[in-house]
Amino acid sequence: MLKLRRKQGESIVVIPPGSGPVRVTVIEVDGPVVRIGFEADASTEIYREEVWRRVVEERRAIQ
Question: What is the domain extent for residue 37?
């Protein structure tokens, strides 16, 4: 796992293979809660981890 420090307003850019860049920006830090924003192509799926786990389970059930 790569760990990075970012301050409010700072970003990182992730470039997945075969896809456009995804910019992740720290929007707000309020104690233990961090709000982040994502900028990506409309075709890029972005999920919270707990939602992604459900999506994977549902896709497996369909197959």
Answer: 11-62
The closest alpha carbon to 18, from 55, 48, 43, belongs to 43
The model's pLDDT over 3-62, given as tens digits with 9 standing for 90+, comes to 999 999 999 999 999 889 999 999 999 999 999 999 999 989 999 999 999 999 999 999
Q: Does 3 fall in a domain?
A: no
* 5 domain residue, yes or no: no
* 50 contact partners, CB below 8 Å, separation of at least 6: none
Asked if residue 1 is part of any domain, the answer here is no
Question: How buried is 26 (Cβ within 10 angstroms: 0-12 exposed, 13-18 middle, 19+ buried)?
Answer: middle
d(CA 32, CA 11): 19
Whether 35 is covered by a domain: the verdict is yes
**Tokens encoding 36:** 């982040």
